[in-house]
Amino acid sequence: MSNVANVLGKFDVSIAELVKKYQAEGKKMIGVSPIHMPVEMVYASGMIPMGLWGGSGEVSAAKEYFPAFYCSIVQRVMEMSLTGQLDCLSGIMVSIQCDSLKALGQNIRRAVGDKIPYIHVAMAQNRKLECGVDFNETQYRKVKNQLEEIKGDFFSDEDIEKAIKLYNKSKKLMQEFVAVAADYPQIITPSKRSQVLTIANYMDRAEYVELLEELIAELKKEEVKPWDGKKIVTTGIMTSLPSLNEILEENKLAIVEDEVAEESRQFRTLVDEDTDNPIRALAKYLGDIEGCSVMYDADKLRSDMIIEKVKKSGADGVLYVQTKFCDPEEFDYPIFKKALENAGIKMVMIEVDQQMTNFEQARTSLQTFAEML
Amino acid sequence: MDKIYTLGIDIGSTSSKCVVMADGSDVVSSAIIEKGAGTDGVDIVLEKALGDAGITMDDIKMTISTGYGRKSYNGDKDMSELSCHAKGGAYIFGEVATIIDIGGQDAKVLRLDKNGQLQNFVMNDKCAAGTGRFLEVMANVLHVDLNEFGEYDAQATERTPISSTCTVFAESEVISCLANNADVKNIIKGIHYSVASRVAGQAKRVGVVPPVVMTGGVSRNSGVVRALEEELDTSIAVSEDSQLAGAIGAAIYAYESYLKNK
Fold first, then answer.
1. What are the chain B neighbours of A251 within 8 Å (beta carbons)?
2. Host domain of residue A31
3. Residue B106 forms contact with A (CB below 8 Å)
4. What ipTM does the predicted assembly reach?
């Protein structure tokens, strides 16, 4: 009898449950804003990095800090910090990759900085230049000092190297999972896929690696069956909205690849291993990232990367999930749309935010897209 | 040989439409009522269309529902209104490259390829501006029957500028214009340009390629059609059956689906 459902069930764990578990184990947690953050250093310190993606829900208290037309991830994270939902954290780490995140860091520091230590992660825009790597390394050394202060303990380069290797291992496994899952759309539905990939942002990475290895092994035992729906590649900041995934399932749209910040953008690039300076390796990693809307990308490689993913995966089209009021994604869209049209690849764009309760327009768009494909 | 009857039901947000089709090519009967999703509108149009055709549900081989309320009708299948408007638009107008469909709460622009297949589309944001609902709100403020908007527009001497950003702001603009004794006909012309500029912006995102046609309930408003023609610098064809495009498309899809699964 198939054991896949049983293993998949292990990924179906709420963030609240994980928080309770880590608290019971006496582990400190550090909130980490999106994206490409030095989570390896957090892990090396003996603390658990917890993604700050905002979850779903209303925004009320955060309206004091942000106007209505603002990134919903940022608004939700601010809301959580103001309503005590982040009090379980021993620190909050925020980067500056977009204008919204810059304001989030400042507001969090101002609003809750006295009870939750704030760790500012400045990143050089010219991340590929040697001086950019120097700058990022300097910043990361400051981050390390703050983490040591919070933990009350020193951690070494060896600890960071070990964490880099663990995270690289998980990244390779996640890449493998994405490839294997594409063969089993009947089992790995968009909801399940999202659950497996996004829980990595909250779960102890060593535990996650074990679970994912088990899942991939179990999946491979399953018979590959023909798929009578369509296959798509998703792109955007986040797609882990239950209603969105339900609509994809209703319309038999299987995700065979993604280029989503909350998912594969975080695991498609590895950090250099076995260097004599693991902190610099983490700084260099920022320069190695390609095609991400929130990282300065003079060559605008994202479109080509997605076209390549479509060709490799045999996808029928692309779903562009635009997080409302996300400037970096909006700037990329016209370039992206033109490139896909030129390549003859069908695409649809839908707008989402974390306060959405009515998905009827998205439902109509996605049903039309499925019918069009 | 017996005819194959199929049914297309378009349950919109403010109106329900029903079409009985024979052999996927002839509209046998149709019905429209200004009662949309969540009302008994669908039952009324269904009864009327079947009655006019002189048949019963037992004679219908397949039914496809479409429109905002498509999931609420227990037919054989449901399809999105965009696919159905593309199909129905091609049926009504023949050669079509761009369809502008403005309904009660949605505005959509569809691009069709040479074979009449839907190639690309864009929908309005979650906002009433640029939709039939916007016009309804304005009709209430002005106390003018929406069906007369086209005639008022034709008699306007100039256009009073009205915002296209937000229905609520536009409503207060209209009230201000009334307070300043602006001519109602000119205000209505301004309202039509407000809708047209919003929808034209959408249309340009998918590219406007002639022949351009208009479907959906708002196509009955000649003022909006004129304003859109000016905004897009192209002629726009409308038909008496424009509002039925979704239901016709659904009935044709029902026929094709019946043949495929027979």
1. none
2. 1-373
3. yes
4. 0.77
